[in-house]
């Protein structure tokens, strides 16, 4: 495929738009390894007798494995390319969900969740990371499109999974969709190739880009990284609680099974809500990524983080009304789903493209730490008999994160990049690989498939 003006005009695996499309497809196929979990919790509880609190520990382990191993997986991608890492992740997902279909032990469920989380992390971290490398001039938009697959894909498959659980049981759903989705990702991964370095740069003056390529270890020695880490850990917590508990919350409110009519089809409120949730969760990523490319990373974060705080309060205040639940639950996803699209672009802007997959993966581990709060949410619900305390706390954290991102992180990161660029210009590195790669445009380049 040739690429004129950045838009694909034919078919060639070396074109960056084709590679981005493949990344989006992979993300969509693995999305419900995470987002459908809320549908399995109650059926597993009713079948096995395990408490919902103990079952939700499996979700926490999944998120920990999905996120904490991404830096290591990113290093493998930076070295060997996306194909082997995504293929390996697909196999792990297949194995985990097939095992889930036959699991009779709570501890085996935990092990399966670790395998599934590792597989999902391989796919997620790789797809977002290579989007940053293929599109250094549109990091927010490209990273957002890749991450969008994770939300939109969930919206497309959540209803079939819900129907399969209802008609055939959760075990059959694990078996069927584990083989289908994992197998499809494995096949798509065979078409993915390693990006080449580009000399394209962002056009917006609001997103200053660093010239130096930092390793992950070097990045982790900078204060900017740790301020970012704290903010994204805090923001991730509220969204993960909603992701894991939205079905339980709807059932506790007594509205989960209320029939809702849409396009002459009647479906339960919870199923409709989850479909809308995942759709907006996907759409917000390229939208906010595009806005952050235009108006700045932290400026965009400020407004969407404030929106998250209001949405978390809204679902507690008004969520007992089924129609308002249909508004505020998706708003939580709308204002949360974009955080790792923006954060990945921000890491690429600040620390360079060469190690972007591993570096973005290091910040993605914040999701793992935030996952530790999910069982605490269930525990607090059992103690208080209400979700109010949990969501009010998360709302306060979201508002504080909005303020910190705009008035602490933004000036801190800009000053860091300006200083780093000045040092780079004063003492440019002698690196033949960097020099040769920087001169090679992506379009029309000859790329070895890895």
UniProtKB/TrEMBL annotation:
<keyword id="KW-1133">Transmembrane helix</keyword>
<dbReference type="InterPro" id="IPR036259">
    <property type="entry name" value="MFS_trans_sf"/>
</dbReference>
<keyword id="KW-0472">Membrane</keyword>
<feature type="transmembrane region" description="Helical">
    <location>
        <begin position="114"/>
        <end position="135"/>
    </location>
</feature>
<feature type="transmembrane region" description="Helical">
    <location>
        <begin position="20"/>
        <end position="41"/>
    </location>
</feature>
<feature type="transmembrane region" description="Helical">
    <location>
        <begin position="142"/>
        <end position="162"/>
    </location>
</feature>
<feature type="region of interest" description="Disordered">
    <location>
        <begin position="428"/>
        <end position="450"/>
    </location>
</feature>
<dbReference type="GO" id="GO:0016020">
    <property type="term" value="C:membrane"/>
</dbReference>
<feature type="transmembrane region" description="Helical">
    <location>
        <begin position="360"/>
        <end position="377"/>
    </location>
</feature>
<feature type="domain" description="Major facilitator superfamily (MFS) profile">
    <location>
        <begin position="16"/>
        <end position="413"/>
    </location>
</feature>
<dbReference type="InterPro" id="IPR020846">
    <property type="entry name" value="MFS_dom"/>
</dbReference>
<feature type="transmembrane region" description="Helical">
    <location>
        <begin position="224"/>
        <end position="247"/>
    </location>
</feature>
<keyword id="KW-0812">Transmembrane</keyword>
<feature type="transmembrane region" description="Helical">
    <location>
        <begin position="174"/>
        <end position="193"/>
    </location>
</feature>
<feature type="transmembrane region" description="Helical">
    <location>
        <begin position="325"/>
        <end position="348"/>
    </location>
</feature>
<feature type="transmembrane region" description="Helical">
    <location>
        <begin position="53"/>
        <end position="72"/>
    </location>
</feature>
<dbReference type="InterPro" id="IPR011701">
    <property type="entry name" value="MFS"/>
</dbReference>
<feature type="transmembrane region" description="Helical">
    <location>
        <begin position="84"/>
        <end position="102"/>
    </location>
</feature>
<dbReference type="Pfam" id="PF07690">
    <property type="entry name" value="MFS_1"/>
</dbReference>
<feature type="transmembrane region" description="Helical">
    <location>
        <begin position="301"/>
        <end position="319"/>
    </location>
</feature>
<feature type="transmembrane region" description="Helical">
    <location>
        <begin position="253"/>
        <end position="280"/>
    </location>
</feature>
<dbReference type="InterPro" id="IPR050327">
    <property type="entry name" value="Proton-linked_MCT"/>
</dbReference>
<dbReference type="InterPro" id="IPR026355">
    <property type="entry name" value="Oxa/Form_antiport"/>
</dbReference>
<dbReference type="GO" id="GO:0019531">
    <property type="term" value="F:oxalate transmembrane transporter activity"/>
</dbReference>
<protein>
    <submittedName>
        <fullName>Oxalate/formate MFS antiporter</fullName>
    </submittedName>
</protein>
<feature type="transmembrane region" description="Helical">
    <location>
        <begin position="389"/>
        <end position="409"/>
    </location>
</feature>
């Amino acid at each position: 495929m040739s690429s004129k003006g950045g838009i694909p005009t034919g078919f060639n695996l070396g074109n960056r738009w084709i590679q981005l499309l493949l990344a989006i497809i992979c993300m969509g196929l693995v999305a419900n390894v995470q987002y459908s979990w809320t549908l399995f919790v109650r059926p597993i509880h009713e079948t096995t007798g395990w408490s919902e609190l103990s079952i939700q520990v499996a979700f926490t382990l999944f998120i920990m494995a999905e996120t904490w191993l991404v830096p290591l997986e990113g290093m493998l991608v930076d070295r060997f390319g996306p194909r082997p890492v995504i293929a390996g992740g697909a196999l792990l997902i297949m194995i985990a969900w097939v095992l889930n279909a036959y699991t009779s032990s709570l501890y085996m469920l935990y092990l399966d969740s670790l395998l599934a989380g590792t597989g999902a992390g391989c796919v997620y971290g790789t797809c977002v990371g290579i989007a940053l490398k293929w599109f250094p001039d549109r990091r927010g938009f490209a990273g957002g499109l890749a991450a969008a697959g994770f939300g939109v894909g969930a919206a497309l498959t959540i209803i079939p999974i819900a129907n399969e659980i209802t008609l055939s049981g959760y075990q059959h759903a694990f078996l069927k969709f584990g083989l289908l989705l994992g197998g499809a990702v494995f096949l798509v991964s065979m078409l993915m190739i390693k990006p080449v370095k580009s000399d394209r740069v962002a056009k917006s003056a609001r997103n200053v880009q660093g010239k130096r390529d930092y390793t992950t270890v070097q990045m982790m020695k900078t204060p900017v990284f740790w301020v970012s880490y704290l903010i994204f850990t805090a923001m991730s917590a509220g969204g993960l609680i909603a992701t894991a508990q939205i079905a339980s919350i709807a059932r506790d409110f007594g509205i989960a099974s209320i029939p809702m009519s849409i396009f002459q089809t009647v479906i339960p409120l919870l199923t409709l809500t989850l479909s809308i949730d995942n759709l907006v969760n996907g759409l917000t990523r390229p939208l906010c990524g595009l806005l952050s490319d235009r108006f700045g990373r932290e400026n965009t974060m400020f407004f969407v983080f404030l929106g998250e705080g209001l949405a978390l309060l809204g679902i507690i205040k008004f969520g007992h009304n089924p129609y308002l639940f249909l508004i505020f639950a998706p708003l939580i996803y709308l204002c949360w789903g974009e955080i790792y699209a923006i954060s990945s672009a921000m890491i690429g802007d600040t620390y360079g493209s060469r190690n972007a997959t591993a570096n973005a993966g290091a910040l993605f581990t914040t999701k793992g730490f935030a996952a530790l709060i999910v069982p605490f949410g269930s525990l607090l619900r059992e103690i208080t008999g209400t979700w109010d305390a949990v969501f009010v706390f998360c709302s306060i954290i979201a508002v504080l994160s909005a303020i910190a991102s705009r008035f602490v992180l933004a000036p801190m990161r800009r000053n860091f990049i300006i200083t780093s660029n000045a040092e780079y210009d004063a003492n440019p590195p002698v690196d033949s690989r960097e020099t040769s790669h920087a001169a090679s445009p992506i379009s029309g380049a000859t790329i070895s498939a890895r």
